[in-house]
Amino acid sequence: DVLVAVGKRFVGTVMEELLSKFQPGALPHCSVVQTLASLAASNVFGMVPFLTSILSTMLPMLGMAKHDAMRVAFCCALQHFSESILEYLADLDQAPDPTVRKDTFAADMLSAYDILFNHWLQSREAQLRLAVVEALGPMSHLLPGEKLEEQLPKLLPGVLALYKKHAETFHVSKSLGQILEAAVSVGSRTLEPQLDSLLAALHAQICVPVESSSPLVVSNQKEVLRCFTVLARCAPDRLLAFLLPKLDASGERTRLGTLQVVRHVINSAASQMEVKKPFILSSMRLPLLDTNPKVKRAVVQVISAMAHHGYLEQPGGEAMVEYIVRQCALPPKTEKLGPDSEDHTADGVRAISISTLYLISTTVDRMSDVLWPYLLAFLTPVRFTGALTPLCRSLVHLAQKRQEVGAEAFLIQSNSNVALPSPYAITTRLLTVASQPYVGDGRGAASLRLLNALHRSIHPLLGQRWATTVPPLLEHLDEFTEETLSQKEWEERLLAFLRDTLAVVSDNTWICQLSLEMCRQLPCYTGLPQEKNFLYKCVGTALGAASSKDVVRKQLRELLEAAGHQEEAEREGLACCFGICAISHLDDVLAQLGDFMRSDVFRKSTGIFNIFKERSENELEKLKGTAILCYGYVAAQAPRELVLPKVESDLLPNMFRYFSTK
């Protein structure tokens, strides 16, 4: 080590000393050979000029070396000599002697190769076999091209056979990669017949379970993937014909290993894979259906690579985007596992999907045309509710990008092959989920930001107004937490925002469309009483702002008929809706309630329907409850001077008629 350190500066002096201990015809001391090897590694420019004479002295010694330790030292020297020659040739413009050529060393390397491959590689000693294989990798680049070509049919099977003999396969894979690169660089024709055995052996290596604790196993995977890159560049058709059918195999290890290779070649052999995109996309069909979390993770990583290389613009790309959104919508697990096991759970899949969606929306420019406006289609279906926050964040980013490009590009063009939600549906959905603002990783703030970003598409008049009304809502959420926020006050703020929005738009047709869409979305929130209750309040607010009496009456009637009167929260929500609507439309609300109470729903069934008598008695009680509750809210909310005259003529008679109850 001291000699190597000094040799970095004073290579001539050190070599003079060393070569006196390295004479032809006598085996040198093991450490002399090791020192020469280390010097070659640490001072490339200083040592390469000496290598011609060192090699001519050393080659006859190889036959004299009988002990494994000596042979290992020679292998190590040949490996480092070859590596430093290759490094010297790669930086020839900076080298002290630019006349050095590769073929200067070809004959010496060939003789050394002959001894190492044909004699020493057969040794029983594992350490020697590994030292030989490590040397063969870089040496293969220095063999004369025609000799390498001639040797490949023996050399590759010889190296592949070592996979079976050694547990630690890193050095075998590394050397194999170097030999394959050398073979491709001389345009080898003998590689072709060996592809099948190569692919099978490499695939078996990649499917070994990775114990992340062992760095050599991880390094081996990297080297195996490097081999796949070489093959992907020189024989893409053969590689894919071998790989893609393996995606249909159901075994976890096979599928995981294959997905890893697919992802790697998408990244490392992009130009060769360009024309293969449709095949690669269609071969993902079965992996997309796999429910194993480890496989899901790997699929998401493949899709991420595809996004960066323009696969998702192809037909079939949208299925990949939908897959990511579906994983983002997985319900988060509450109990946290240990730090190591966390990754492969559904939570791990959800986390990597969320970060992937955000990454491809914000950093991959070519993806913005794929994701916009397509991602809007996932906002309204209930099954994607879990993905709302990441969706909103990505969409806000995409919308802002669009606005920078210019207004025309930004308006939501309805895409022929994707059913996009209407502006009314988007508004209803985002407002409703904002009522539970801290659920799903801050859904309230994310949905309000998106609503604001889409203002131009929702209504042309809203931009300026929302610029002043949305930020205070977001600030309010920042000031509080799920525990400290007053739900009642928050809902009142949102309803005030809605009232203000309707006043700015003040277009009856638009408002009626919005209230109709709100009624249409009510069934989506069955089982979510708080959101549904809030949506009822929104319906009342929208109907209150509508000027068309017919629409108001028709929608109130439909609400009464469709409501689930069995649910306490639903009766409460419906009554709130009537109360809010009565502020502007007292007469219509009372007329509608009166009609409802006189309708067939309230008549006891007779005759043939007596079988249902018990059930209908109970239902009737609940209906009465709804009606009376509605009157209560109407009386509380409507303007006092309008309600008082109606109390005796309208409210009380209807209520008393149904007050008798069991």
UniProtKB/TrEMBL annotation:
Claim: Zinc-finger is one of the keywords in the record: no
Q: Which GO terms describe its cellular component?
A: cytoplasm
Q: Does the keyword Repeat apply?
A: yes
Q: Where's the MROH2B-like HEAT-repeats domain?
A: 143-662
Q: Which UniProt keywords apply?
A: Repeat
| Span of domain MROH2B-like N-terminal HEAT-repeats | 1-140
InterPro entries referenced in this protein's UniProt entry, alphabetically: ARM-like, ARM-type_fold, HEAT_MROH2B-like, Maestro_heat-like_prot, MROH2B-like_N_HEAT
Q: Which PANTHER family match?
A: MAESTRO HEAT-LIKE REPEAT-CONTAINING PROTEIN FAMILY MEMBER 1 (PTHR23120:SF44), MAESTRO-RELATED HEAT DOMAIN-CONTAINING (PTHR23120)
Protein's name according to its UniProt entry: HEAT repeat-containing 7A
The organism of origin for this protein: Neovison vison (American mink)
